[in-house]
Structure formats: structure tokens, C-alpha cells
Request: fold
Amino acid sequence: MRRLRFQILLPALALLASCSKDVPEDMEVTEGTDPTVETVSLEDATEVAYPNPGSVTEVYFAGQQLPVEQINGDYIYQGDILLPPDMVSHEEVEVVFDKDEEIPANKSVGRTSGRWTNNTVYYSIESSLDNKTRVYDAIKHWEANTNLDFVERTNESNYIYFVTGSGCSSYVGMVGGRQNITLSSSCSTGNTIHEIGHAIGLWHEQSRIDRENYITINYGNIQSGREHNFHTYTQQGMDGDEYTSSLDFGSIMMYGPYSFSSNGKPTIVKKDGSTFSVQRSALSTGDKTGINNMYPYTSGGNTTTTTPEETYVNGEMYVVYGVYLLRNNDTWYYYNRNYGWLEVFNRGGYWFYK
Ligand SMILES: [Zn+2]
Reply:
């Protein structure tokens, strides 16, 4: 029987999210829902994830088009293999690149992809960064409210670098290698908490797929050229997931009603046309719910994570850095729809054709 191994590390494709500088206002916290716990019953010798089949749909996972069953939000492949939803796309995603190809900077594998392993985020701070206290305070806030640990980097290869910039910005998710969070002198502790939110894998709250149920985007009031900031992550070709049942106006990842306004009129309003308050002081209850679903508590701290250095068995299929590959002759092969099996190699978490 062929084995599949899932590697939580993903291709290092991420979006540099530009962020609005929001003025903290009063706090409005929306409760998130508890995660639904699914039970699996094994009635006979055939392992299935659910006793009853779900609807079959074609999706892309790790670069492969797969028919999967969709049940209760889970993607199930071949009966008993659960696919991480953040690695599933309904549109084809390029996952292997030509040898000398530049990695498209506007690509991401998702809001929840590129997670940090073992709930540990490594970081380093530029020595000349102004007001380092905001970084330490933001990190303290994350540690006090989530299962994540932030550890000052020694020689780890994947880490956040807090660096002086012209605004506040961050990549979404763990990118691989050094990834900057830029902070200008006007970025507050709250803004830093928000940027760390991106780096651990969060999109903006208003880019949820279901946001039309809660808000209206007034495109006519948005500064020219800034409209893309208001697209849902799927409209941007990104993949992701929602971890709470409804849009959380209190999320630290939520834009304010006047973000990127060209004329002083609101760009985001509630469905009834009214504006709302946003906050940049703390993670909301909904934020904590979502983040704790992304990074569940692990008693030992060290969860089982396969690494590319482990021994692979020739003739078996694996998912490594988010790509479905065949191991043969101690070499990796990727199935290209047009050309068949092609040898690939990894560089910095990305796969390239040889
Ligand atoms: Zn942001």
C-alpha cells in the first residue's frame, strides 16, 4: 500500500500584504464559535473518514487535480485521507517552476498555509529599529493569548525579521527563509500585533469569502489603484479557510470603515449602511478562536513533523513542501499533465524542474 505523508511546510509563496494604518477605536469583540469535532466510526475493514459519502468535487491539491469528497467542510481523498483544507484549491495553482523562473511574488497558498512548525515562531529585530518595546509587547501579547511561542533566532533558517520600513507590512504565513515585518515609527504595538497576525497566516478579516453577508464595499469611495485591497482572498487567486462562523468586526485583522477612502466617505459599511468600530489593541475572542484552531495546543511542544531530510522509500508517493511527488531512484518526480513524470529538485522550499 502506498503511503502519503503530509508535510506541513508549504511552498514559500506568499503575499506581501500592505496594510492600512488604522487608528485604534473602541473595541468590539464578536464571539467565535467552538470548533466542530468530527467523529469517525470504523464499522468494517474499509477505512472511511465518514460513514456516508459526500458530494464529489474536483480540486487541486499539491499540484494534482483530484476528485475529493466534501463532507462537513473536510476534503476527503480515497476514502480515508483528509486533505488539509488550506492546501486545497478549486483552481489550478502552479506549484513547480522552471529552473530559472522567478517565483511570482503575488502568489500564496493561503491564509492558513505556511504555518510555523511546532507552534514556534523565530524572530530577530534589526538593531537600529526604533521603539523595540512595541515588538516585545506585541510578542508578549501573542504568547499570552495563543499557543504560539516566539523565540529569538540563533541560526534557524525560517524567521521573522522586524525591520524599519515606510509603513507596517508583513507576508502572509511562513514564507521560508527570512521574512520581514516592516515597521515605520508610526506603527504601534497594536499594528505590530496585526502584522504578526499576517506572518502566522491570517488574511484580513474583510477578505473572507462570506464577507458579502456582513459588509458592503463601496468601490466608488476607494482611492484609485487601491481597489485590490478590498478583494476577497479568492478574488486574488489565493487559497484559505475561515476558522470562525461569521465576520468578526472586532478582529485585529479587520479594516476600518474609512480604510483607503479617496473622499472621506466610508469604503466598508455594514449591510444596513452603518459604519462600525475597529480596534488595534488586542486579539479578539474570534481571533483567538481562529488562531488556536490553526495552532492547537500540543503538550510536548514538539508535534510530529516530517522533514525533507528524512529517509524516503523509493516507489512511494509523498507530499513534500506542498507538492505531490514520486520518490524513485532517490530522486523526486512530479507528474506534469503535458509531459508526464519530470525530475524536480527543491531550493528554499520551492520545487523546480531539473
Ligand atoms: Zn494587514
